[in-house]
Specification:
Blueprint: H1 4-25, H2 38-41, H3 51-57, E1 68-72, H4 78-86, E2 91-96, H5 99-109, E3 115-119, E4 132-136, H6 141-154, E5 159-164, E6 179-187, E7 189-190, E8 193-194, E9 200-207
Parallel strand pairs: 1-2, 1-4, 2-3, 4-5
Antiparallel strand pairs: 5-9, 6-9, 7-8
Length: 209
């Protein structure tokens, strides 16, 4: 049974996230949408990362105009909203396999010239076009393993990976050649508010082919 205080605090956090969505995007991005591609390709549902959580996970993010950021499984674009709200100067791409939620991200990001939303399979992108990768657990563990293998086979330059909610599959990167763990922590509450009902782990990595 969920602690009533945690539940209430989480609802307040979600309401504040919705308010921030409205300011940046003109619409709310927080409603969960299950994926129709879960059995086919191991895609998870659309779950928007909390803004306060992104403050923690991306605290060391320093993007210049020469960088290029991709949100793998961007859903409705909460991470992109976070970045444009911060005024980052680089190009930002979101890739999303579910057309229902990709259309939401495409709709509200049209006002931002440095943002592109790609509707399609994350396995179809060339990640040599990016310097920073972000994932909010967009795929199940088996698909994640295949995805990492793809990166290792195709990348020709170093990248940085932020992996939020990595508890089920982040272990796969442990002690792999080329991967360097910068930090790994759990978060549940930030600034006195419970942003997650249960703790979520995140990790930050660099990969040098």
């Amino acid at each position: 049974m969920v602690n009533p205080f945690i539940s209430l605090s989480n609802k307040i956090s979600c309401a504040l996230d919705n308010k921030r969505d409205m300011k940046i995007c003109g619409e709310k991005l927080g409603v969960f949408v299950p994926s129709p591609f879960d059995k086919e390709v191991g895609a998870t549902g659309c779950q928007s990362a909390p803004y306060k959580g992104l403050d923690v996970v991306l605290k060391d993010l320093d993007l210049s105009s020469d960088d290029s950021f991709v949100d793998i499984g961007c859903g409705k674009g909460r991470v992109i909203a976070y970045l444009v709200g911060k005024g980052v100067p680089c190009s930002i791409t979101g890739i999303e396999i579910n057309p229902e939620v990709a259309s939401v991200a495409s709709r509200w990001t049209k006002r931002y010239r440095n943002v592109e939303i790609v509707e399609g399979d994350a396995f179809g992108l060339d990640y040599n076009d990016y310097t920073v990768l972000f994932m909010y657990r967009p795929m199940e563990s088996d698909a994640f393993i295949c995805f990492i293998n793809l990166l290792e086979m195709t990348l020709t330059h170093p990248v940085k990976l932020y992996y939020y909610a990595d508890g089920q599959s982040g272990y796969y990167l442990n002690d792999r050649p080329g991967w360097n763990l910068i930090e790994r922590h759990e978060i549940q509450h930030v600034g006195g508010r419970y942003i997650h009902i249960v703790p979520q782990r995140y990790s930050v990595w660099t990969y040098n082919p």
